[in-house]
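ok trying again, last paste got cut off:
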Amino acid sequence: MNPEKVRERILHGPILKTMVLLAWPVMVTNALHALYNLVDAFWLGRLGTAAVAAPGMAWPILFFFMSFAGGFQVAGSTFVAQHFGAGNRRGAEESAGQLLGFLGLLSVILSALGYGLAPTVLRLIRAPEEVFPYALTYLRIECMGLPIMFVAQAFGGFMVGLGQTQFLMYISASSLFLNAVLDPLFIFGWGPFPAWGVAGAAWATVLSRAAVAVVGLTILFTGMRGLRLSPRALWPKPSRVLPILRVGLPNVLDRASTSFGFVVMMGLVAGFGTTVVAAYTVGNRIINLINVVSWGAGSALVAMIGQNLGAEQYERATQVARRGIAATFLALVGLYGLTLLLRRPMFAMFVADPAVIREGVWYIAIFGISVPFFGLFDASAAVFRGSGHTVPPMIMAIVRLWGLRVFLSWLFGYQLGFGTTGMWAGMTLSNVLAGVGMYLWMRKGTWKLRVVKPVPASSEEV
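nice, full thing came through this time. structure:
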């Protein structure tokens, strides 16, 4: 849909219908990502339990590096949405160019750090010996692809800010289809390809992201979707970069603390052995199929809150927040019930080890209870992010992972001797308490205060 028509719908259309129209493409995209991860687990599972556990072991570390891209991606969405909602195309394009240039430089630095530190970090989180070589290979290849992933993330953030979620879905779906095709070719060496095993899964991911990056840059520099960048727009300007950093850095700290918390959580999980690591890895990928509702709703809320605040429609922004959060919570309650009924056959599709299936089914039964509360947390945080108030979500993310999840999982699982059941229960309690806390903070209404300052508009307006 034309960006101007999307803007009109966001500012004046029916709230829940508009939210669904913006959210469903993001849900489909994230569901495809989750399905790809399950397909990845399906093929790697044919190589053995250690191979299927390797991406799960590497993922928290990758998530830490990716948190920089994700944190600034949200800042990009916020600035583009608010400038576009105010009818200021120039401000949106300047913000997008500055962010893209900054992320390009940052990604090269993080790529080198990740590649060099990979063995040390895997040892620190107690990667089992049989998993370590596979996880190291997977992690290093993914780190080499970080610059590609940063560009793809930035492009996605700009499209969300413009409300172009359906177009983004088509791009992502094409990339994921390519990934799914390359996976078995690279893992098993079908046809003319060599059998790379776990490394093949990592290379398939990197190449599929490269396709998104190339398409995204082409669209941004040709002006095909509401923004037109020039190479000189990428050169950093302190007056333009600093406001983005002020909004983006709390997002980065939010995601980095979360990802580092997941690194520590993986260390706690690994303490119970390879079987539990495999169950946790596959179980999280199944849970992520439910969480696509949270991610889709969050993206829609960022765009709708951002554009309505940019247009100074504060009462409508409040209605968007309340209705959007309620709809997200109720949808997740229903999806958890369905997953609870189907959890055993879903697990059996991807692993054959009875011990892994048994532990994974128990994990979903306990931790799945908290999924609606994670939706409450994520949707409330999206309201803050869309308005540019990124500190409250950062604080609550740190509390959720460090003050609650890591501590309670360690306390119940290890200190009190409840084993994996205690660890899963601690994880559940962290989402419930943090979700309620984030929602109550949102209800105070402090997110309505203006953060993103207007940029003088040129003669060309939206």
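cool. The two ends are 15 Å apart (CA to CA). Residues 3-448 form one domain.
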